[in-house]
Amino acid sequence: MPDPARLAAYDVLRAVRTEDAYANLVLPQQLRAHALSGRDAAFATELASGTLRRRATWDAVIDACLTGKVQPRVRDVVRLGVHQLLAMRVGDHAAVSTSVDLARARTGPRSGGLVNAVLRKVSTRDLDGWLDEVAPDPATDPVGHLAVVHSHPRWVVEELARALGDERAEELPVLLAADNDAPAVVLVARPGLATRDELPGEPTSFSPYGVRLAGGDPGAVPAVAEGRAGVQDEGSQLVALAVAGASVEGRDERWLDLCAGPGGKAALLGALAHERGATLTANEPQPHRADLVRRSLRVVPGAPEVTSYDGREGPWAPATFDRVLVDAPCSGLGALRRRPEARWRKQPTDLDELVPLQRALLTRALELVRPGGVVVYATCSPVLAETVEVVEGVLEGRDDVRRGETRQLWPHEHGTDAMSWSVLTRW
């Protein structure tokens, strides 16, 4: 039988392929199912997540070594083997022999010979050698070259290039490479409930409440287990801090998180609101995600209200909130580091549905905020159609809104997800 770590990694890939599972959700289940911890859990995590991220690169290499078609379940085994050979410190013999064992256990005894033959051929070159053969010529097809070398769909490469702009074009390969790096686990100390000093790890560079966890299970940290702290990317923390830090005129009593699921920003906002004597309403239209928001807010003082309405409608009266966050549903292309399968599921046509929704939510938020209050429009995407173009489209022809701070974070520059936000003041 193959070792449990490789079995767990394969079972993650199979669930992602056949059940549309999310790797970040199924991976912990598989680690528990195979009783993995410590180094074995870390190995399985890198093997599964890394293979999913680098799928396009590994498929190009595999296809160069094949003379015919291969069943999807067998290709999963070969992808895992290629990742070990070309991206992990696993010896050639170990990578090949354990992959053959895995194939026989999960896909049938006759697949072992094919897996052995393909991986032995892959092992004859290092990664750079294979990229020289399988990647398109950068002079004639620069987008295709980057798509294979850095394992991104072509359209995503094009959108990220557009978001960076001509003046930062040379950063594109670095950004794409950063999307393939495993992200650090970042914790947040919720104000009034925990302090950053009681959390293990190195303080974050920009958020005064965060730490980068050095390793281990974040759920084993007492403050996290008790809900006084949580797991939250630093970029997400900074969005909440932008909402709380924006200047308002007059009262500052009612805050609204219009799209609150799964609840990380809402928990930080709720804690900050309570410290100022304000109250938070956290709205999430999907009931199961609203339950996650309630769980995140369970120990936040001030009893933040959790509602479940379509944010474009809802029962709230116009001009009644002092601060509104619109963390809009988006393509999520800013979080490709932590959602390894997401890049292969997103399509450019997704924007056709997302952009009208984003514009409608921002329009509604500007109706709900009072004159002198602020709206922060945020996405976990750097795609211009979802960020500045949404804001510009909504503000066109309006003279009652002033645009303030606009920020775009980048994983290669800030070490965060590529969060984007704009601060808008209603007049």
Automatic annotation (TrEMBL):
Q: Give yes or no: UniProt keyword Transcription regulation.
A: no
Catalytic site residues?
380
Task: Pinpoint the SAM-dependent MTase RsmB/NOP-type domain residues.
Answer: 160-427
- GO terms for biological process, alphabetical: methylation
Recorded hits in InterPro entries, A to Z, give: MeTrfase_RsmB-F_NOP2_cat (IPR049560), MeTrfase_RsmB-F_NOP2_dom (IPR001678), NusB-like_sf (IPR035926), NusB_RsmB_TIM44 (IPR006027), RCMT (IPR023267), RsmB/NOL1/NOP2-like_CS (IPR018314), SAM-dependent_MTases_sf (IPR029063)
Q: Which family does it belong to?
A: Belongs to the class I-like SAM-binding methyltransferase superfamily. RsmB/NOP family.
Q: What is this protein called?
A: RsmB/NOP family class I SAM-dependent RNA methyltransferase
| Organism, scientific name | Nocardioides aestuarii
